[in-house]
Amino acid sequence: MLDLSKQAPRLLPSTELPAYTFIPGSDAPHPYRDPRGHSYQKRHPPSRPLIPASWAENRNYLLAMDYFNYGYYWESHEEWERLWRVSTPDSLVGRFLKGLVKLAAAGVKVRENSIHGVRRHSASAGEIFADVAAEVDAEFFCGLEFTVLQFASDRAAQLGFREKVVGSTPVRIFPFVLVPEPMPLAG
Closest Cα to residue 2, out of 78, 65, 83, 96? Predict the structure, then answer.
């Protein structure tokens, strides 16, 4: 985990980040439905299921972490949700992804200025990570450390977010980033 003064390492540096992050209810165009959207009519390759033993080869998973670490919470939510849909939702991987989806949703709620939503999604993510960690009985899963995920979720739920973030410029609002171990080869 890095502090905010450090830049998060890009996991897929060859993939361009969008020009803005989508915030529901804002003036930003919807990425897929609006012709001005950053992903309008772009073909999205089908997601491959996330496999714990080969997580570092799953581009959707790595891209979602890049999005999250750079303040694209809606986009990371979408990527992790795509992976969740191609997983068995009640499997360990499915529940783990649901925790990541909830953590990203908390970031969206910060941008929507919904502190109740931030706390609800963060707390839910922390509970999911704790449950999956108990079943996995290991420190790491898909490259991420459960202790860090639970701390991140708890920390996000406790923050006040007094400063309103305006506009659709991506802003990392959480005092943590998700850095997998070992770091995958840059793609």
Answer: 65
Q: Report domain extents, the chain.
A: 55-158
**pLDDT tens, 102-122?**
999 999 998 888 889 999 999
Give 55-158's CATH code, choosing from 3.30.230.80, 2.60.260.20, 1.10.3450.10, 1.10.1060.10: 1.10.3450.10
CA 121 to chain centre: 12
Q: H or E segment at 134?
A: helix 115-136
Q: What is the pLDDT of residues 148-171, one digit of tens each?
A: 899 889 888 877 665 666 778 888
Q: What is the distance between the alpha carbons of residues 120 and 122, in angstroms, rounded to a whole number?
A: 6
Dihedral sign (CA 175, 121, 96, 70): negative
Under a CB-based contact definition with an 8 Å cutoff, are residues 108 and 23 in contact?
yes
Provide the pLDDT for residue 45: 79
> What is the helix, strand, coil percentage profile of the chain, to 5?
45, 0, 50
Interstrand relation of 144-145 and 140-141 (parallel, antiparallel or unpaired)? antiparallel
